[in-house]
Design brief:
Elements: H1 6-14, H2 20-27, H3 40-46, H4 57-63, E1 68-69, H5 80-86, H6 99-121, H7 129-153, H8 187-201, H9 219-232, H10 236-247, H11 258-262, H12 271-277, E2 285-292, H13 295-298, E3 308-309, H14 312-317, E4 337-340, E5 345-348, E6 355-360, E7 365-376, H15 377-390, H16 394-408, H17 417-425, H18 453-468, H19 474-481, E8 486-491, E9 497-504, H20 517-521, E10 539-540
Antiparallel strand pairs: 1-3, 2-7, 4-5, 6-7, 8-9, 9-10
Helix pairs in contact: 1-2, 1-6, 4-5, 4-19, 6-7, 7-8, 9-10, 9-15, 10-15, 15-16, 15-18, 16-18, 17-18
């Protein structure tokens, strides 16, 4: 494999526009601004920087089936970066939400975690309780950011091909010089190293050393991450075990209060709901992260790139406004917000705040940023239900799905395998021009055939997860894991499908985002395959 000076790439991103000499000068110094990490307080303070300030939400939502091309009448509101993501193209546009920031911010967070781990290793044994917790946090941060990178830039993990699929460099130590070299390795190798960090970190995590615990890998957040990791790693029993620790004996008491969200009513001002969604005191929120991002504008009623949207057609046929197991969408405790007019067609759940960080008070310039909640009780409950389905513990899965459904809606229905199977037996499989909530599933791991109890239960889990995680980018990971085909369509003036423009099939290499151009130019082996529209693919309705 080709090798790349990864650390140089990190310096290039952080100090774009500086000379190569100044980059080298920077790399001669420690990333903690030359402060020696010789006290507990300094290590704990450093770990506040062990979290990326990049959001994957915009990229992943555009990659997924949660977004449509609204057609030529919206051409005025096009955007090159979003178009490249939507068309599964090589993303070369520079953007706060772009792939270069995703790459470098993640590796910077990993580097920070490694500096903390090195400092802790140099402290005398036995470690004080705060330092044990800090070590656990650093290990979880290192694992999490590698997890994000491998799932964005590589094919999804599966036991059949991950021993040969290209991975990403796994940084296990602080750089010893200016020119370290890295090999990509394989997806299987990356997952094994993530598993090792999680297994070492989980027994150490705790909540006593945080001033703002919801912005760190506190104990609940750590076990929620472990649940997701083991689900992706196809270790279903471990996923359940970690979810049990995270959720405790009364998961219902941890779920989001949608009645409180609905109390703000139908409004054009999304701020009250957005701010409530990210409230640190909410029991449901386990980990919160900040990002320099336009997500708060894109997932709102602002006119930004409205040529690409989670629109009313998707909403009415597949997601927020579609009939579901519980009946009419009006049973939802917090109804979706739909904005449909001359410049916009979007159906939203208000959860992504648009915050402005002023850097120059004189010129009033700065950056838009947002806050996300990647780990919370509602998602972890559904991830446990998925693991139960894979273990064929259907009664337990139905119990979790019922708890989630009764919290999301006003329904008192109790889900059983017969109820779920009957609902999906009477639903046709999705096509672009006759969309439904039921998709053909082609995961690399083994599931029972179409029409089986297990397949019907998976349809339900994936349906509920899509609703719960709308605008967050997690749907893209499920599309990859379950081999769900996406067909791109362009909408007409009535916001209905007019033409096919492309499709993403099960083994399409574009399911792995291409590495940033700068990284490839520096010598790292790129992902194989075609990026961009399949030549000549266009079919009228």
């Amino acid at each position: 494999m080709k090798r790349s000076n990864l650390l140089y790439i990190l310096g290039l991103s952080l100090f774009a526009g500086l000379s190569f000499t100044s980059c080298d000068d920077f790399l001669d110094e420690n990333p903690d601004n030359r402060t020696e990490l010789d006290t507990e307080e300094k290590v704990i303070s450093l770990l506040t920087s062990a979290y990326t300030r990049h959001s994957y939400a915009m990229i992943n939502e555009c990659l997924s089936d949660n977004t449509d091309d609204m057609g030529p009448r919206y051409s005025k509101y096009d955007d090159r970066f979003i178009k490249q993501a939507y068309t599964w193209n090589d993303m070369t546009e520079v953007d706060n939400d772009g792939v270069m920031n995703m790459w470098t911010d993640s590796y910077n967070a990993i580097s920070t975690a490694n500096h903390a781990l090195q400092a802790i290793a140099e402290m005398p044994e036995p470690l004080e309780p705060k330092m044990k917790e800090a070590k656990g946090e650093a290990l979880m941060c290192r694992a999490y950011h590698h997890f994000l990178l491998v799932n964005e830039f590589c094919q999804n993990y599966n036991a059949n091909t991950s021993n040969t699929d290209l991975g990403i460099p796994y940084m296990l130590s602080v750089e010893a010089g200016l020119n370290p070299h890295y090999e990509r390795g394989t997806v299987a190798e990356v997952y094994a190293k993530i598993a090792k960090d999680i297994e070492d970190g989980l027994p150490l995590v705790g909540d006593t050393h945080y001033s703002q615990p919801k912005y760190h890998f506190n104990r609940q957040a750590a076990y929620a991450f472990a649940t997701r990791f083991y689900l992706f790693y196809e270790k279903w029993d471990k996923a359940v075990e970690c979810a049990n620790v995270c959720l405790g004996t009364s998961p219902k008491s941890l779920l989001r209060d949608w009645n409180e969200m609905e109390s703000y009513g139908i409004t054009n001002n999304l701020d009250p709901r957005n701010n409530l969604y990210i409230k640190a005191s909410a029991k449901c929120n386990f980990l919160m992260t900040t990002a320099v991002s336009g997500a708060g504008i894109f997932f709102s009623n602002y006119i930004m790139a409205t040529k690409y949207s989670h629109n009313s057609f998707i909403s009415k046929n597949e997601t927020l406004e579609a009939n579901n197991l519980w009946g009419e969408y009006t049973m939802m405790r917090c109804l979706p917000l739909v904005f449909k007019g001359g410049t916009m067609d979007r159906a939203l759940v208000a959860k992504t705040p648009m915050l402005f960080e002023e850097t120059d008070p004189v010129s009033k310039t700065g950056y838009y940023h947002t806050v996300a909640v990647p780990f919370r009780a509602d998602i972890t409950l559904l991830e446990r239900a998925e693991a139960y389905v894979m273990l064929k513990l259907y009664d337990k899965a139905c119990a979790d799905l019922t708890v989630w459904m009764q919290n999301w809606t006003k329904s008192n229905m109790t889900l059983t395998t017969d109820v779920v199977k009957n609902y999906y037996d009477n639903m046709a499989y999705y096509t672009s021009f006759a969309p439904t909530q039921k998709r053909h599933l082609y995961p690399a791991f083994e599931i029972e055939g179409e029409g089986s109890v297990q397949e019907s239960m998976l349809q339900c889990v994936l349906n509920f997860k899509r609703l719960e995680t709308i605008h967050e980018g997690l749907r893209w990971f499920d599309i990859k894991r379950y081999g769900i085909t996406i067909t791109r369509r362009q909408m007409n003036s009535d916001s209905e499908p007019e033409i096919y423009t492309d499709s993403l099939l099960v083994k399409d290499p574009r399911r792995a985002i291409q590495l940033p151009n700068q990284v490839v130019i520096a010598g790292m082996e790129p992902n194989p395959g075609l990026y961009g529209p399949t030549p000549g693919f266009q079919m009228n309705k």
